[in-house]
Each structure stands twice: as C-alpha cells, then as structure tokens.
Specification:
four-stranded antiparallel β-sheet, 131 residues, alpha+beta, 7 strands, Defensin A-like
C-alpha cells in the first residue's frame, strides 16, 4: 500500500469531529441585601448549573469574601453586606479556577479528590489539573 491509501484509511477510522456551537455562560448571582446580610437567591441553581457541591462553592465564597454564612434551602446567606458586583466577581473567580478546563477552556469538568488534593478532570479533552 502506498502512503496516500494508508492515510485515507486512517482518516476513515477517526471519529467524526463534532462542531457544536453551544457555549457555557457564566451564571449571574441574584443578590439581595437585607440589613447586614447578603442573600444569594439563586445559589442552588448556580451550583446545579456548574455541577459543583454547594458546600464547596459556599466555603470558597466565605473565604474569598471574608464572611461567615450558611446555606438555607436554595439560598446562601452571608453575614456581611456585600455589593452584588463583588459577589459575582468572586463567583466568576471560582468558576475560572474550579470549573473551566485549563487545556481546552470548556466547562465539562468534574472536581475529584486525590488523597488530600483536589483536581479538575475534563470530560471533553481528558486533561487533569490540580487546584
């Protein structure tokens, strides 16, 4: 067999390239200030959309915003008055670090633990990076 036929045969055995145009949109937190508390009303939807444990997201936000808080039903209550732009910036920081794949830039990832360390494993390209 010559090179051209071998190359053609190899191309036929490759999987078809998918050209899906769907994009991941960063969720926006619906923030409500109630006295000295800040309430994220759609916290359950955000955690479901980015496929992460709400407790992990809440722990990150507590530390990033220097606030105590609690998860109450579908909402997250922070015990500090915080502007909605700051909350959304910290949420986007979480998504950038713990959701988006560093190799391909897709959000088709999951968070797993290896011993004491967490890593993000991409379901789209197979990349793995520790966080």
């Amino acid at each position: 067999m010559d090179y051209e036929k071998l190359l053609e045969r190899a191309y036929t055995k490759l999987p078809k390239k998918q050209t899906a145009k769907e994009r991941f949109e960063m969720p926006v937190a619906e923030v409500l200030n109630n006295g000295n508390n800040t309430i994220i009303k759609n916290f359950a939807e955000i955690s479901k959309e980015i496929r992460r444990d709400p407790r992990h997201i809440a722990k990150f936000l507590y530390k990033a915003l220097a606030s105590a808080g609690s998860i109450e039903g579908n909402t997250l209550v922070l015990q500090k008055k915080i502007h909605k732009h700051v909350v959304n910036d910290k949420l986007h920081s979480y998504i950038k670090n713990f959701v988006i794949c560093k190799a391909c830039g897709k959000a088709d990832t999951y968070l797993a633990k290896d011993g004491r360390h967490f890593y993000v494993k991409c379901e789209a390209c197979g990349a793995k990076h520790y966080v």
